[in-house]
Every structure is written in C-alpha cells, then in structure tokens.
Amino acid sequence: MFLKAHLVTCLFLLHKMASATRSLLRAARPAGVRTQIRLASTSSKTLSLKERLAELIPAEIENVKATRAAHGKKAFGPVIVDQLYGGMRGLPALIWDGSVLDAEEGIRFRGKTIPECQALLPKAPGGSEPLPEGLFWLLVTGEIPTQEQVTALSKEWAARAALPEFVEEILDRCPPTLHPMSQFSLAVTALNHNSAFAKAYQEGVNKKEYWGPVFEDCMDLIAKLPNIAGRIYRNVFAQQAQGKLPAIDANKDYSANLSTLLGFGENPAFVELMRLYITIHSDHEGGNVSAHTGKLVGSALSDPFLSYAAALNGLAGPLHGLANQEVLIWLKKMQSKLGEEPTDEAVKEYIWSTLKSGQVVPGYGHAVLRKTDPRYTAQREFALKHLPDDKMFKLVGQIYHLVPDILLEAGKAKNPWPNVDAHSGVLLTHYGMDQMQFYTVLFGVSRAFGVAAQLIWDRALGAPLERPKSYSTAAIQKIFKDKS
Ligand SMILES: CC(C)(COP(=O)(O)OP(=O)(O)OC[C@H]1O[C@@H](n2cnc3c(N)ncnc32)[C@H](O)[C@@H]1OP(=O)(O)O)[C@@H](O)C(=O)NCCC(=O)NCCS
C-alpha cells in the first residue's frame, strides 16, 4: 500500500518535472534559433546542449534547495581580519560549479583532471587533443558529450559566428596602438546591442526563464570570439590584411576556424595547440579575477556581453591574464642580454636582478596553487611532443629548475612553482605568433567558456545580486576595541 502510494507520487513528480522541462525549453528558445537547434539534435539523433540543460535544471534547483536546507545555517570556517586586508585569500564566498581548484593537485573540470579530459573528451578526426566544444558541454552539464553532440556544437557556433557590421567597424577604427585587450573588451561590450537577455528583460521575462536568453547570449558570445580575435590580430599585426578575414567554415571545429582567422589554419600542429590551449585555459574555479568579475557583474543582471567584457578587463591585468605577455617579454629580454643558450649561473643572476629591482618573476606563483600548475605540465608535454628542440622551450625548462629555489630563498612567495602563463607564450612563438601583446586575447577567448557556463547556471538557479559587507579600518578597530 505504502509502496504503491510512493510509486504514484514518484510518477506524478516525474511527470511534473518532464512537463516543467518542456515548458522551460519552449519559453527559453527564441523563435530564430528553434529550427537550428532542432536540426542539430535531429541530425545527431541526440539532444542539443540546450535541450539537455533544460532537462538538468529542475533537478539541480531541487539539489541546491536540499543542500541549503541541510547545510544552509552551518558555519563554513572562521573569517579573520587579515583576509579582509589580504585580497580575501581563502575566503569561502562563491558557488562555482564548472571547476574546483585544489592547491596541491590543480584544476578539475566537473571533477575531471586535465589528463582525464584529454583522454575522455571527443577529438577532431586525426587529432589527439580534446575539442573545447566538448569541454564546454562538460562544464555546462557535468557530462561527457558524444562526438555527434560536439560536432553539432561546432556547427552551431559556426552559424552564430558573424559579427554585426558596426562591431567590425569599431575594431577597424581602433588605432593599432590600442592594446588588443582593450579592443577585445570594446567589441564584446558592443555585442550587448543584440543581447537576447537584455531584450527579454525589457519585455518583462519571468525570472524563472532568465537562463534561456542568457544561454543564447553565451552561445553567441563564444561563437563570435574567433571573429573578434582574428580581426584584432590582423588589424594590429598584419595591417596589409586589415579587415580582410576568411569565412568561417561550418564543417570545421571552433579551434580550426579560430586558427584560420588568425592566419595559422594551415598548420595542423597550431590547430591542435589551440584545442589544448582553449581547453586548459577555459576555467579555473570562481575566485580568480576574471571569473569572479564575470559572475559579479552578471549578478546585477547585466547581460553576458557586459559581464564578460568586465571579466576581460580584469584578465588584462599583469598579475592575471597579462602575465603570459609579461613572461615572453621577460624571456626575450633575457635572451637578448644573455644569448639564446645562457649558462645556469647567468640565468640565476638574471632572476635575482628581476627580484632585486622590485619586480615579480612572471609565470611563477599562484594565489591558490602550491604545486606546479598541471596546465603548465600539459603544455610542457605538448612541447616535448611537437617542439622538443626549440631553444626557448629549452630555456623555459632550464628556468623551471632554477626559479623555485630562488623564490624560496627570497622567502616571500608562498608558491615558488610555475603557473600556466610560464609556458603558453613559448608555444605560440614557436608557430610564428610572436606578438606577445596578443596572447591575453587568446586567454580571453578561452576563459569565456568557463564564465559563460557559470552565468547560465547562475540565472537558472536564481543566484542573487552579490553584495558582500565591507568595513573601514576605523570600524574594525572599534569592533575589537574592548576585545583583546
Ligand atoms: C600570481 C600572484 C599574483 C599571486 O599573488 P599572491 O597570492 O599575493 O602570492 P603570495 O601570497 O605568494 O605573495 C606573497 C609575496 O610574494 C611575492 N611573490 C609571489 N609570487 C612572486 C613571483 N613570481 N615573483 C616575485 N615575487 C613573488 C608577492 O609579490 C608578495 O610580495 P609582497 O609581500 O611584497 O607583496 C603572484 O604569485 C605573482 O605576482 N606572480 C607573477 C605573476 C603571474 O605569473 N601571474 C599569473 C598568475 S596565474
């Protein structure tokens, strides 16, 4: 009797969830993309990303409710005053589902390490690096997609890739002296002109349906980044090719199209590098400057273009994404001073002179990591396979053996080991992309994947406006005045 009643309740709940899913999907899918998504799912005989997401949302809403009901009032560790002054290091303050960073082990995307992603995610025909399309699917759903689902995503992004003419004009009018990251941020901000979410909000969309137009904007954002990056690269560094970009090929994957737009599409090793590069740079949990900025601005219900443009402005800082540019400048200066194959002693002296002049050693240290960044290791393995004899790669290896001891001896850095930026520029330079001012743009293309995945979930789960509490030094002194 009890079992029967239970079964009826379960069936009723399942039915409710299925119909909620269907109506969520109906409401969230603007007419313009309906045909395209159906085509993607029927041609692959599997669900599109949006359809799968719509299935997952009701259960995740319940999951969050249950977590809050069970643990919502529990303390999550003490907060000490130093954390307020110390850039909030270690302060548990955010929910970020796509990835979690362990200080010793490094990043896991939805629970999977970089080597696991390399093994499990679908590859391009003949390729051995994971397709970033698959990584995006994983970040959004927590699931490994099929080859067909990934191909459908490549096609969908290709179909959405074109830029509005006025955005092309904005880029073409930028002086080549304007930093590529500033141009990037301008263009992404301007995409807000066609935001599906901003439009839906003006039209009074129900908050339960926010995620649908946010999903559309995020897909558009990711899809349009190769055209923005390609245009900036050609305008700034190949001025004779200004404004002339090859067309996106709907039969190629995202990284192949990006490589073509940059002018490197004929080199299969560069295309493979882009697949690996985008995958490993996509997400690094929620507290880093770019990810947190994107989430924060999104919490004000600014659309994904405005949110991601803000994230890009944070990524453009030398302690964050610009460090890849800084590493190359530092390495080139070292080579011009010491020659291409310097001795250990000369390199050590150079590292000490950097520290003594009050500068950081770029590419080393991390706010969370306490071991060698597995993103560094993945790039090193790529280099060992594709460019083992490259002189600058060898120099990077030599530096790896020298910097940690020096940083430890200097006694300040909590983490003396290399991060992702210590390696990326060397690989790009090897293939002829030696314009280091551009490197952070590629980081920005990649980081959109992680920020977009979280923006979608934040709106699906009704994440509130962020508003932490701040204190003045006088207020802190007053609070502790009589407590010694
Ligand atoms: C990433 C970074 C900003 C983390 O900062 P953090 O969390 O404050 O790091 P720490 O707690 O270890 O910093 C403690 C001290 O060591 C110094 N330090 C950290 N990394 C250093 C490095 N690579 N070279 C020299 N000094 C370093 C810091 O500047 C700080 O000095 P201060 O007390 O005089 O202000 C820092 O390691 C850094 O500047 N690295 C170089 C830039 C870089 O590679 N950025 C990319 C990160 S992915």
Automatic annotation (TrEMBL):
Family the UniProt entry places it in: Belongs to the citrate synthase family.
Signal peptide stretch: 1-20
UniProt cross-references to InterPro entries, sorted A to Z: Citrate_synth-like_lrg_a-sub (IPR016142), Citrate_synth-like_sm_a-sub (IPR016143), Citrate_synthase (IPR002020), Citrate_synthase_AS (IPR019810), Citrate_synthase_euk (IPR010109), Citrate_synthase_sf (IPR036969)
Keywords: Signal, Transferase
Name of this protein: Citrate synthase
MF (Gene Ontology): acyltransferase activity, acyl groups converted into alkyl on transfer
PANTHER family: CITRATE SYNTHASE (PTHR11739), CITRATE SYNTHASE, MITOCHONDRIAL (PTHR11739:SF8)
Catalytic residues identified in the record: 320, 366, 421
Biological process annotations from GO: carbohydrate metabolic process; citrate metabolic process; tricarboxylic acid cycle
One term under GO cellular component: mitochondrial matrix
Domain of life, per lineage: Eukaryota
Lineage: Eukaryota, Fungi, Dikarya, Basidiomycota, Agaricomycotina
